[in-house]
Write a structure and sequence with these properties.
Helices cover 30% and strands 23% of the residues. By secondary structure, the protein is an alpha/beta fold. It has one domain. Strands 2-3-4-10-7 form a five-stranded mixed β-barrel. The protein has a three-stranded mixed sheet with strand order 5-13-11. A hairpin with a 3-residue loop joins strand 14 and strand 15. The chain starts with a helix and ends in a 5-residue tail after the last helix. The relative contact order is 0.17.
Length: 384
C-alpha cells in the first residue's frame, strides 16, 4: 500500500510539473518578444482565421508590422482547415548564407471533439454570392489554444550588398511571421460567423461564371493564357514576369508547385533543401485544390508569382519591403488579371469586395486601392 501511495504521489506531482510548464500568455505579449517564447508550451486565447494565404491567431492590433501568430498543425495531422495557398522559402543545397536547422520538441495533436469542431468550422467555405471568393470561409473561431511556440527576433529576410538573400525570416507564408504556434490542443471553441452581407448583396442574382478553359492540370499554362488578355500594359508586363517565375517545363529554377497540406509544420520545409537553386533559395508553392474553384488556381499562380518576383527581383527601394507591401502588390496584380478575364466580382475573406464590374470607370482604381488597404489593415492585421 505504501508503494502504491508513493507512486500515486509521484504521478500527481509529475502531472503538476507538466501543467506548470504551460505558459499562459497573449498574442500581443508573444509578438512583443517572440524569441523569448521560443520552444515553450504556451496557452493563448485568441481568434483564429483561415484565409487565402494566412492561418493566424489574432488578438487585436499589437502595434507590430504583423499582428498575428501563424498557426500550424503538427506534420501528418491531416486537418481540413488552413490557408488556400502558401509560398514557403527554404535554403537550397547551394545556399550561400549560414543556416542552422532548429531542433524542436515534437508535438502530438489531440484530436478530440473540440479539435474536430474547431477544424470543421474553419474549413467551411462561404457559399453565397457570385464570382470568385478567394479563401473565403464562413467562420472565424475564438478559442483557447495550447501548443509549442516557435519565435524569432526578426522575421525579415537578410540580404548581402548585392541584394542576394543570405538569411531567413520566420514562419508561414513568405516566412514573414515572427511567431508560429504548433497546435497541441484546443478548447472553448466559439464560432464567429463572418459578415459577408455587403458583398453578397452586391453580387446576388448573378451566376457563378468562370472563364477557365478546363486546362487547370497545367495551371502555369492556364495563367499564361489568362494574363495574355492584359496585353502590353504595365499590369500585363508585370503579370508576365510573375508567371515566368515558375520556369519552363523541366527547368530547375528553384520554384516548385505542390498540392496538399498547407496547414502543417513540416520538418522538411524547416530544414535545408537537397537541390540547388540559381540564387540559393527554394520557393515552395503549395496549393489546397479543395478550396480553389473555377479560375481560383490561375489567380493563385499569379498571386504566388508576384510574391516570388518581389523577393527575387525587388523593385528599387523595395528590397526590404514588409509583408503589407508584398501582399498589396500580389492582390493588385491578382485583381488586374481577374478584371482582364471578365470576372464580374472578386471577394476576399471577411467580405471585402475587391472588384465589381458595376463600379463606374472613374471609381475603379480608387475602390480597388481602398479595398486592398482595408483588407490588409483590418482583416489580416498588417501594418506598413
Amino acid at each position: 500500500m505504501k508503494r502504491f501511495c508513493i507512486l500515486v504521489l509521484f504521478l500527481f506531482t509529475t502531472a503538476c510539473v507538466l501543467e506548470a510548464q504551460v505558459v499562459d500568455t497573449t498574442v500581443c505579449d508573444v509578438l512583443s518578444n517572440p524569441k523569448s517564447f521560443d520552444g515553450k508550451i504556451v496557452r493563448i486565447k485568441g481568434t483564429v482565421a483561415a484565409g487565402f494565404d494566412d492561418f493566424i491567431i489574432k488578438g487585436g492590433n499589437c502595434g507590430q508590422h504583423v499582428n498575428g501568430i501563424w498557426l500550424s498543425y503538427p506534420q501528418g495531422s491531416k486537418g481540413k482547415a488552413g490557408p488556400v495557398a502558401v509560398v514557403e522559402l527554404q535554403p537550397a543545397r547551394n545556399f550561400s548564407g549560414k543556416f542552422q536547422p532548429e531542433q524542436r520538441q515534437a508535438i502530438k495533436l489531440v484530436k478530440d471533439k473540440s479539435f474536430k469542431q474547431f477544424d470543421s468550422l474553419l474549413s467551411q467555405p462561404h457559399q453565397k454570392g457570385a464570382g470568385l471568393c478567394l479563401g473565403c470561409t464562413r467562420y472565424e473561431v475564438a478559442a483557447t489554444l495550447v501548443g509549442r511556440l516557435d519565435g524569432v527576433e526578426d522575421a525579415s529576410l537578410r540580404r548581402d550588398a548585392s541584394g542576394k538573400i543570405i538569411g531567413f525570416g520566420g514562419f508561414g507564408n513568405l516566412n514573414a511571421f515572427p511567431a508560429r504556434l504548433v497546435l497541441q490542443s484546443v478548447s472553448d471553441v466559439t464560432p464567429k460567423e463572418v459578415d459577408f452581407s455587403k458583398s453578397d448583396e452586391i453580387t446576388k442574382g448573378q451566376m457563378k461564371l468562370f472563364s477557365g478553359s478546363g486546362d487547370l492540370y497545367d495551371p502555369v499554362v492556364a495563367a499564361q493564357r489568362s494574363i495574355a488578355r492584359l496585353g502590353g500594359s504595365p499590369a500585363g508586363i508585370q503579370a508576365e514576369k510573375d508567371v515566368a517565375q515558375f520556369g519552363k517545363p523541366g527547368e530547375h529554377n528553384g520554384v516548385s508547385i505542390g498540392y496538399g497540406a498547407t496547414n502543417e509544420a513540416s520538418v522538411k520545409e524547416d530544414g535545408q533543401g537537397t537541390h540547388d537553386s540559381p540564387d540559393g533559395v527554394l520557393f515552395n508553392c503549395i496549393f489546397n485544390l479543395d478550396r480553389l474553384e473555377g479560375d481560383g488556381q490561375v489567380r493563385a499562380i499569379v498571386h504566388a508569382g508576384q510574391h516570388i518576383a518581389d523577393l527575387r527581383d525587388p523593385a528599387k527601394g523595395n528590397e526590404n519591403a514588409g509583408l503589407y507591401i508584398l501582399e498589396y502588390n500580389a492582390w493588385a496584380i491578382t485583381t488586374a488579371t481577374a478584371v482582364a478575364n471578365g470576372d464580374k466580382f472578386l471577394t476576399l475573406p471577411g467580405g471585402y469586395l475587391l472588384w465589381s464590374s458595376a463600379w463606374p470607370n472613374a471609381d475603379r482604381t480608387k475602390n480597388v486601392d481602398d479595398a486592398i488597404n482595408e483588407f490588409l489593415s483590418k482583416e489580416t492585421l498588417l501594418s506598413k
